[in-house]
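Entry 14. Two folds queued back to back today. First construct below, sequence then structure tokens.
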Amino acid sequence: MPKIKKTAKNVVALFAGDIFNRLIGFIAVAYLARILGATNFGLISIGLAFLSYFLTISSNGLPILGVRKIIKCKDDNKIVGDFISTRFVFSIFAVILIFLISFFISSSQLRSIILAYSLYLFPAAFLLVWYFQAKEQMGLIVSGRAVGMMFYLILILIFVRTNKHIIYVPYCWFVSGLVTSLFFILIYVSKGNRIKIRFSFYRIKSLFLEAFPLGVANLIGQITLYLPPIFLGFVMSPKEAGFYSAAAKIVFLFLILDRVFSFSFFPAISKCATKTPERLNNVFNQTLKWIVIVVILFGFSGILLGKYLVLFVFGKEYLSSVLIFQTIMSYFMLTLINSAFTFTLIALKQEKAYTFSLFIGSIVFFASAWFLLKIFGPAGMGVGLGIYQAVVLLIMNNKLKNFLDTKFLKIIVLPLIVSVVIFLPLIFTVDLNIIFKILIILICMIPISQLIGIKREELKFLRNKVI
């Protein structure tokens, strides 16, 4: 019972804090989008995309590996010291690489923004979120992130008053990262721990090789996810990148739901895979049914409300972001479904199949990006992300069929096709009040849930896992 209570508290703390932090970050994004304008906001988005790539490179899967190490080993100080030292060295190399790449960027303003963002890599090396995650101290994680996001928002409101202050944005991000890292270090030290920094070539090499497989899958996903603003910025213009980034920020806010499923449903899958594998097929399919219900409801409702959301948050200047947002929602919908397959494959120790699916999906995305851009404009990047996730889903399903009866057509394909046939004409062609459109979507969810196979058994499963 104490374990259950602790887990429940962690889940509640994490989600409440995650929603709060994302909303604070979203307010900062909306403010910057309005103050800077689409072109300058695009430059900021390109700089942040570069930073995301090099954060992934400098972390190289170390946070995931660190969680495993802390859980298994009792010498916290040694592990923390080794991991911080290793990541700090990786960060130095990443900054040097960014500096060399910057010589090939023609825009001096964009070059300055990218270099300013690269400073964040240094405090990120000392970010001990992974340590407190291993200790299941989610309240501290939420608090640390909240301090950092609030600090960032305050700095933005103070220093970024016109579009001429664009260079202050990455510096505000750097200072907020510094504050966040300092918060976790002070908490760590206050518990009687010490941080022992030591630069051992043998240890750094060993951790690099051990963490490398974990970092590859993450890098592939990040490259694909953050390519569109960079691609649009160089092929079209920073303004188009700004339109895309504004739309993407709203979609990423929807992805809070992905974290909800990760913490509420997927532990059941992992537990079944190790303790009661004979029940795994049933638990997987029940989980998948509820995910598809949420995907259809929130996905098509989001597409319907896209214009209202974009104009409310960013203003009329970002009208071009509406169609982009609606296409990126395909990425949101398939991401939630893919998460069920991802966690199940990992539970079955099939990480290579997951990494392979990401690799093939990214190849398809990269190969089609130019053609999609020519056909659909910036919205083609949203279409491309949807195709990427669809390819990943097909490959993972093909692998998972060797272990489970996934009922892919019945639970996923058929309900999605029916929903597209019903809802897309309603959203784009029928001249009805938006309230009536939402009501129609809600009413139609009843027969769709029957089509998916929601019965008394699924309702009982939901009550046991969530309520």
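Second construct, same run, same settings:
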Amino acid sequence: MQAQRTSERPAVVETAFLALEQKRVPMHVGAIVVFDGGSPLSMPELRKHVTGRTRGLARFHQRLAWSGGGWTWVPAGRIDLVAHLFHHELPAPGTTEQLLELCARLHEQRLDRGRPLWEMHLVDGLADGRQALVIKTHHAITDGLAGLAVAEALFDMAPGVDKPCSLPVMGFAPGVLETAMAAVHRIEGLAVLAAGGPLAGAGPFNAAVSARRALGITGLPVAEVKRLKRALGVSVDDVLVGAVATGLGAYLRRRGYVGESATLRAMLPVSTRGAERGFTLGNHVSSIFVDLPVGLAEFASAVRHVSWSKATLRTTHAADGGALAIEATRLLPAPLQGPALRFVSGLPFAHLIVSDVPGPDQPMFLLGRRIMGSFPMMPLAADIGLSIAILTLGPVAGLGVTADPDIVPDPQTLADDIGRALEGAGSHTIQARRRKAA
């Protein structure tokens, strides 16, 4: 793999994720892509495929260099795939639990900044002849939508078609008026943050995070999510975040933690990229802070609460203010930027992190093998031991729970609770419709 010939300074948000990384808090994102059995994918096939398909991903061909008090993306030269592509064999019987244990150990390991900040791991030995591809990329080079750029490069929309899939571009191309209004919204949003402040008290998932990770996964049928969206008159994201809130409530009630009025503040990353950026690599993200109604056991009520909260936050442009606050660190001398970002990130902003990345809901394929599910792995914050992410990449939205096992010892149980919340919501909605019709 031949490197790009250009050098450039990281964007502000990219610098932030580099500064926030610590030994016990790696700042990479990942996905566990499980594909069906049949003819097993070999390492030589994978190397050839990755070499050909990632030529257009510039950050895959750059590494970091420290100069002038800051980081710079520089050409990496010829890429040694031995340092980026790895092979693992699960012992029999090849259960999901064994796969998650391996992926948790891989997720604990920081990416080497002396090389391009990505890895892929091919995992053999799953039951029924299945395989998995574990993808790790640093958060400095991929936000949620940029992660879809990797999927766009690697995966196909039909079996046996040696051509990268083409995903629809999200966002818009701003004109002069839109650019001016964006500046106004950022100032307005920063004022909102300064006035009200998104600070939260300590919650059940707030503690000093260790270097250990544990994972839980489940699949959420996209067709059912869309049925609930239409029935409740909300967005797909509202349904998914509402399922997280309801599942969290069930999980915490068994532990005697929540009452009916209980809420937990979730940090929800939101994209700040327009159509001119498309799915290109890089990080263009801010955050909003939504109070999840974990005390509400009734799914529809939780979803409507989430929908109303998000709509209110959009009118205050809080995400624009958050982006401006991060960019303001550029005004500090280079040696102070990292400490300032780490200080701000250490404030009690939220109790957990929740992310939803929308992608295509059509079946997708990797070298002719049908993808059965794609489950995200997320970073934690220094004092937030739980991160929940949902990735729609095919007809099943993959939900991934990433946790510090000292804080959340049973993340699979939590993932199952969220799945059951959505499953139960479908039957309750149908019953409510029948009662209304009668």
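Quick look at the second one. The radius of gyration is 21 Å. Residues 168-196, 273-284, 316-324, 432-438 have pLDDT under 50 and may be disordered.
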